[in-house]
Every structure is written in C-alpha cells, then in structure tokens.
Amino acid sequence: MCVHDQHQLEAHIVRGLLTQAGIQTHLKGEFLQGALGEIPFEQTRVQVMVYAIKLARAQQILVNYQQQQKTHWQCPVCHEENGPAFDYCWSCETQRI
After folding, report:
1. Is the pTM value of this prediction over 0.85?
2. How far is residue 61's CA from residue 54's CA, in Å, rounded to a whole number?
3. 41: Cβ–Cβ under 8 A, 6 or more apart, which residues?
C-alpha cells in the first residue's frame, strides 16, 4: 500500500525512516523522473510502498515526520528562530531541546 506520494528526495528520506523502524519498503516510480516532459508530471511522482500489515505503523512514522518538518523552534539561550531541520541553533549552536 502507498504510504507517501512525493518527489524522489523526500521519498528516500521517508524510506530511510521506515527502514530504521524495521519496515520493509519499495519505491514505485523511482526511475520515472527521467521521463519528465515525455509523460505527465503527476506520473513522475515517487511512491513509498509498504505491506498492508505494516501500514498503520508506517503512517504513524510519516505523521511524526511531517509534524517535525513543520515545527520551528526557538533557541532557549539566544531566542533565535530555527527551522525544523536544525538540531542545533544556527546562531549560538545550542542543541535543540
């Protein structure tokens, strides 16, 4: 079953998260991006596929990932706003709590 339908880079990130959790995955459409322009854009999307029995756990991991990507955080030391991808403050290098 499809867990995530996105561009290739993010599909590989999600696949890595699922693999770390012990969930076997398959990327569908991974090599279609080379045909962009020859086939419609929506057909070049990469899908992360998992077995149905692992779908609920995979979706939970995906929800956590998506929430983390949206969460900006403020440094407790210098009060700078940091993007969700930063584990350390870009200004003072304090670790994210």
Report:
1. no
2. 11
3. none
